[in-house]
Amino acid sequence: MTLTKHKLTDSIHKKIDFPKVRCERLVGFLFEIIKDTLENGEDVLISGFGKLCVKDKKKRRGRNPVSGEELTLDSRRLVTFKCSTVLKGKLNGGRK
Length: 96
Known about the structure:
Layout: H1 5-16, H2 20-39, E1 44-46, E2 50-57, E3 60-63, E4 70-73, E5 76-83, H3 85-91
Antiparallel strand pairs: 1-2, 2-5, 3-4
Helix pairs in contact: 1-2
């Protein structure tokens, strides 16, 4: 099952009995804060869940897998996720 923003909103609505519109806004604001923080190059640490980090990739040489033509891949930024030990323990049934 994929956890969508809609399912997340419904789950919050059921657990804390906020109006659904407020839950949608809450989820939206949360994701905006996370996106803005990552865009500024800062990490996002969610205690007990994990850490979202921005990594800078340098320009590098690559190859088109179809034609075999060599090309240059531009530098880029990407987001990586490192799982917390608490989440790892839950995923592995309490094992470390």
